Amino acid sequence: MVMRILVTGKNGQLGKSIRKLVNAEAKKENNPSSNKFIFVGREELDLNNESNINHYFDSNDKFDIIINCAAYTQVDKAEQEAELANQINHLAVKQLASKVNRQQGRLIHISTDYVFDGESNKPYVETDIPNPINAYGRTKLAGEKALQEVMPMNAFIIRTSWLYSEFSNNFVKTIIKLGKERDELNIVADQIGSPTYATDLAAVILSIIKSEVFSSDSQSTEIYHYSNDGEISWYKFAEKAIELADIQCSVNPITTDAYPTLAQRPKNTVMQNDKIARIFGLKIVDWNTSLGLFFEKVCREY
Ligand SMILES: NC(=O)c1ccc[n+]([C@@H]2O[C@H](COP(=O)([O-])OP(=O)(O)OC[C@H]3O[C@@H](n4cnc5c(N)ncnc54)[C@H](OP(=O)(O)O)[C@@H]3O)[C@@H](O)[C@H]2O)c1
Q1: Which residues form the catalytic set?
Q2: What is the pLDDT of residues 249-267, one digit of tens each?
Q3: With a 6 A CB cut-off, is 91 part of the ligand 1 pocket?
């Protein structure tokens, strides 16, 4: 059966990474019609208000799957634009869930490690109680909760962390750019997490869609954690990126206190990936290997 799969956030890191893999798969299989992916950005489906969402679904055929990659992701700005962030990260998620529910489809929604307060001294599991410490995290958590309420079945919430890619703005690209411009960089060393190469997450999403678990009837809605394996500080991550990019720039560790930001950041949001690996039979690549592949494949152009 050819499934109609709607992907929101087509111009974002994850949306573009999914599109790249879908195009590559279609070429490889020489079978571009195995599933029909429809990629939309705010031009086609602006999640800013409910009437846009209603209009989009009223004027399009039913979708079998929605992959919601769209989000308000500016963590600091969200402190000042909490209402807008809430619309995209919470209310729009609720509206998408009610659309897909009515169409008896499935929803894959992406959430964040920032739903946690970062005070744990062991990796977070899916059943740990979230306690966001900034507006972005609060709106993302509200989105998860609304989705679970509207759609107790057939939705998959994937919490990821520290996403980077060749697309859009992200930490790795910023570090490379600044590393080329400056002799030294001061990077926060007391925030720990797990980087995630968006291509790896995109591949995971595509393999989930093909899995038996995904297509079996009446799945209860579940949360899964997914990041690359291993943990690291922003400082160590920057240091490794500068080394792999072969840039002459020293990287100095600083504390969070020395780098004040509008939004508070959680100290340690390493998540345990065991559940997603077990249920979908995934082999999870460590962050170091993925960062190396990222540089090998795409970073020479920067
Ligand atoms: N980036 C991270 O480090 C990180 C960490 C943990 C979790 N996540 C989650 O992972 C998912 C993917 O993140 P990402 O890094 O790919 O995000 P991203 O690069 O910021 O892309 C998000 C996309 O959402 C779109 N969007 C924003 N407002 C919209 C609106 N009103 N209507 C329609 N589209 C709108 C943006 O469109 P425009 O391009 O037009 O602005 C953008 O293309 C998100 O759910 C995010 O919360 C990200």
Answers
A1: 136
A2: 999 999 999 999 999 999 9
A3: no
